[in-house]
Amino acid sequence: MRLNLLKPNTADWVEKKQNQQKEQSKVTRVFTFGQDVSVKNHSVGRQWLPGTVIQVTGLVSYQVKLHDGQIRRCYQCGVVTTPPTLLTTPLQTLVTFPFTVHLTLLLLLFHALFSLFYFWFHHMITRTCLAGSLYNNWLSIPQCQS
Predict the structure, then answer these.
(1) In 3D, which of 12, 24, 15, 83 has the Cα closest to residue 48?
(2) pLDDT means per 10 residues in the chain (146 residues)?
(3) Phi, psi (degrees; rounded to nearest 5) at 100
(4) What predicted TM-score, i.e. pTM, was given to this entire model?
(5) Nearest to residue 80, comparing CAs of 59, 49, 44, 57?
(6) How many CB atoms are closer than 10 A to CB 60?
(7) Residues with Cβ < 8 Å from 138, sequence gap 6 or more?
(8) Out of 2.60.120.200, 3.40.50.1000, 2.30.30.140, 2.40.10.10, which CATH number does the structure's domain 36-83 have?
């Protein structure tokens, strides 16, 4: 008895699906001289850096001049087209700072405001003798002498 009849042959179906995927992935990106593009950034900072194609160096490689003056050699997989509106977004200045810088600045601001409030509050209690027994016990400040 043949067991092949119980289990269908999926090789033809898999090959057909693989050919469909291969045909769909043949979409290529071609960039020309002077075209505005974004280049993948592999270091710290923004993920994509805006620039302009200055030379096509191969079938899938380009030289791109970034807006800060750097020239990078990039492969096709690390270059995408950039709409002109994305190059001048005002929120880019916030995105360029790493999260830790924002957090550090926020903590410094909080510390400065807390210190200012603490010294003002302490001054009000000790200098003007407005503190009652509750505040004196809480802050361990001696009673004001009348």
Answers:
(1) 83
(2) 67 86 72 90 85 90 92 89 56 55 80 84 65 53 55
(3) -65, -30
(4) 0.42
(5) 49
(6) 14
(7) none
(8) 2.30.30.140
